[in-house]
Amino acid sequence: MIIKAKTKELVSIRIRQGLSRHALSQKAGLNKYAVARIEKGLNSPSPKTAKAISDALGCNFEEIFILLEEASNAS
Asked: Is 24 within a domain?
């Protein structure tokens, strides 16, 4: 499984709460550059990181992240 951010929802919730990326990263115990890359959809967070962001924002995982099946290379 791959975790992907619902980027628009993630950014919208963060902004509605008056948090900068830096403030969210501090609240979640993460690097601000990691938060920026997740928000932009460039990185897929680990389950632990996704939970930390969800908890820091006080929202459900499903509000800001989706689970995707990994593509298999098997023929």
From this structure: yes
Q: What is the pTM of this model?
A: 0.89
DSSP 60: -
Give the alpha-carbon dihedral of 52, 56, 60, 62, to 10 degrees: -50
CATH value at residue 29: 1.10.260.40
In the block, which residue shows the tokens 């919730």? Answer: 13
Beta-carbon contacts of 22 under 8 Å, excluding residues fewer than 6 positions away, are: 32
Q: How confident is the model at residue 70 (pLDDT cuts 50, 70, 90)?
A: confident
Structural domain of 16: 2-68
Please give the torsion angle defined by the CA atoms of residues 62, 65, 66 and 70, in that order, rounded to the nearest 10 degrees.
Answer: -140
